[in-house]
Every structure is written in C-alpha cells, then in structure tokens.
C-alpha cells in the first residue's frame, strides 16, 4: 500500500494520544517529536515538516474545544485537518474549456509514466465522464513512443493522432486540435516528449507546443517513488512552463510518500490524479481528505 511506513508510524503515535481525557503541553510536544521524525523519514521536505509541526502544535496547545470530542481526539483531528491541507485541501478538478475541445498537455521526464498516464486519463474521461478524447502522439524523439501510444489507444479502442516522427511536435499539436474540432472530440490529450533530464531544448519546444495549443491544463507527470527529486522536477517545470497540476505516478509502490506530502506546499500546484498501478484503470482523482484518512487510519 502507498505510504505504508508513514501510516504505521503516525497511527502508532496518534494512538497514544487519542484516548487521553487530558492533553498537556508536554504530551503534544512528545507527539510532535514523533510526528516530525515520521515525516522526515518519509522524505518530506524539511521546511514543509517544520511548518506543519508549527501549525499543529499551535492549534493543539491552544485547542478549540469541540464538545463531541475528547482532548486526545481533538489533537488527532488537528493532525488530520493539517495533513489534508498539506495534501492540497479541496479536490482539484480538471479545468474545462467553454468551447470544446479541452486541451490537456502532458509533460514530464522520460520513464515517469507520461505515455501510460495519457492513456489512463483518456480512459478515465471516457469511462467516468462519458467523454470522447483524442490522444496525440507528439513525442517524436523516443524511438518507441509513438508506437507505445498507438498500442495504448488500440487497447482502449480510442483514436490516436500521429504524423510520424518527421513532423515537428508544434505542427502535430496544431493539426491534432483542428482534427479534434472537425470530429467533435471534447478532449485532446497531448503526449509530449520527455528527456532523462530537464534541458533548454526540451523546455523551448514544450513552450512552443503550449503557445500553439493554448492548453486548459498542463499536467506534469512525476514518479512518486523519486521523492524530493519529484518535487525539484515539479519546481523546474513549473518555473519554465507554468504548470496547472501534477499527476503522481507509481504511488502504489511508494511506501514513503515524501513527494505527495511536499509538492503542494513547495510548488503550490495541486495533485490532480495519482497512478496506482500499470493497468489502464489504475488512475484515481486525488482527494486530499481521503488520502489523509487513509494515512491516519
Ligand atoms: P514515459 O517515458 O514517461 O512515457 O513512461 P511510460 O508511460 O512508458 O511508463 C514507464 C513505466 O512506468 C512503464 O513500465 C509503466 O507501466 C510504469 N508505470 C506508469 N505509471 C505507473 C503507476 O502508476 N504504477 C506503476 N506501478 N507503474 C507505472
């Protein structure tokens, strides 16, 4: 399960305070020491941990009294609320274009799960929202990328727009959107090129694709298992491209959770979806409150 290690530690810590009829400042301090260690061990950004501890401590010591809860339960509730805030607060939905199609640009480093997520997202839009998306193969550099997206489209029985690898991604995006209008696709999802590292050439090109396609969303696909590296990648892409959200992949294998817990606080970008496996239906809209409940038990 995702966040296994963190969930175990936090649940153990909170268990000790939950039943208490009286919570002293020393109790809160002791608990916060353990919460701090648990978060740091989960690879959460240290500044994020510091702020989190400060907020929970302030609210727990000067506790607002809720009649239905014991003091111990109230402290647990404060941790839950603050964890939800840390994960992004409200669920962040996909922005929709008033005049279809809604254009979503998928960006990210190679291997993060961009092509897979492009397919998963299209599948989600069709299955859950009854939409008719067009997939666009604009990664012309990685040898097998176009083929991979075509395979994914074939599996899902969804159309893939491609012009091979000799046409520029900008031209591909332009023609794809024209075709989507003609054929009444309500979503266009563009799978762009990824590299092993961020470089200027990649960013220049993504910038041009952005200009021509005027996307409603630019989603960065990042591998949750890379922890703080994922947060750094998100910061760079956001600075250079102006992202609208993040899709965290491979959360199914992420026992720590550091990226998920740091990304919103560091970049102010919402986590829109999480990838929970390799299969095409393993994509979930991200609900901060539900995730918080899952972690705290
Ligand atoms: P791209 O280079 O960013 O387009 O990455 P791919 O879409 O080719 O994905 C790289 C690998 O990650 C593939 O083996 C995918 O099956 C795998 N993958 C993608 N998303 C997930 C996920 O959410 N969970 C798991 N376990 N594997 C994933």
TrEMBL record:
Family: Belongs to the GTP-binding SRP family. SRP54 subfamily.
Source organism, top-level taxon: Bacteria
Stated role: Involved in targeting and insertion of nascent membrane proteins into the cytoplasmic membrane. Binds to the hydrophobic signal sequence of the ribosome-nascent chain (RNC) as it emerges from the ribosomes. The SRP-RNC complex is then targeted to the cytoplasmic membrane where it interacts with the SRP receptor FtsY. Interaction with FtsY leads to the transfer of the RNC complex to the Sec translocase for insertion into the membrane, the hydrolysis of GTP by both Ffh and FtsY, and the dissociation of the SRP-FtsY complex into the individual components.
Span within the parent record: 1 to 297 of 447
UniProt keyword annotation of Cell cycle present: no
Protein's recorded name: Signal recognition particle protein
Catalytic activity: GTP + H2O = GDP + phosphate + H(+)
Domain SRP54-type proteins GTP-binding: 270-283
Keyword annotations from UniProtKB, A to Z: Cytoplasm, GTP-binding, Hydrolase, Nucleotide-binding, Ribonucleoprotein, RNA-binding, Signal recognition particle
GO molecular function, a single term: 7S RNA binding
Protein's cellular compartments: Cytoplasm
BP-aspect Gene Ontology terms: SRP-dependent cotranslational protein targeting to membrane
Main enzyme class: hydrolase
GO cellular component, one term: signal recognition particle
Residue positions binding GTP: 108-115, 191-195, 249-252
EC number: 3.6.5.4
Principal subcellular localization: cytoplasm
Record note on domains: Composed of three domains: the N-terminal N domain, which is responsible for interactions with the ribosome, the central G domain, which binds GTP, and the C-terminal M domain, which binds the RNA and the signal sequence of the RNC.
């Amino acid at each position: 399960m995702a966040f296994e290690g963190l969930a175990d530690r936090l649940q153990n810590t909170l268990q000790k305070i939950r039943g208490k009829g009286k919570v002293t400042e020393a109790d809160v301090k002791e608990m916060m020491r353990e919460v701090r260690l648990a978060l740091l061990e989960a690879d959460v950004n240290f500044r994020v941990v510091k702020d989190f501890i400060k907020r929970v401590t302030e609210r727990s010591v000067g506790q607002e009294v809720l009649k239905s809860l014991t003091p111990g339960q109230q402290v647990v509730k404060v941790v839950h609320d603050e964890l939800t805030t840390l994960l992004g607060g409200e669920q962040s939905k996909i922005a929709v274009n008033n005049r279809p199609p809604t254009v979503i640009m998928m960006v990210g480093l190679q291997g993060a799960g961009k092509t897979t997520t492009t397919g998963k997202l299209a599948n989600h839009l069709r299955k859950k929202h009854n939409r008719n998306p067009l997939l666009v193969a604009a990664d012309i550099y990685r040898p097998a990328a176009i083929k991979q997206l075509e395979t994914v489209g074939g599996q899902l029985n969804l159309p893939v727009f491609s012009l091979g690898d000799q046409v520029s991604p900008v031209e591909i995006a332009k023609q794809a959107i024209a075709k989507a209008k003609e054929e009444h696709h309500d979503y266009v999802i563009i799978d762009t090129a990824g590299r092993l590292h961020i470089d200027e050439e990649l960013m220049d090109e993504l910038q041009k694709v952005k200009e021509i396609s005027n996307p409603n969303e630019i989603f960065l696909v990042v591998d949750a298992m890379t922890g703080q590296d994922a947060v750094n990648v998100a910061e760079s892409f956001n600075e250079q491209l102006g992202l609208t959200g993040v899709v965290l992949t491979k959360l199914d294998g992420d026992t720590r959770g550091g990226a998920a817990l740091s990304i919103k606080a560091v970049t102010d970008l919402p986590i829109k979806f999480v990838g929970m496996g390799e299969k095409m239906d393993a994509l979930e809209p991200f609900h901060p409150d539900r995730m918080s409940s899952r972690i705290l038990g």
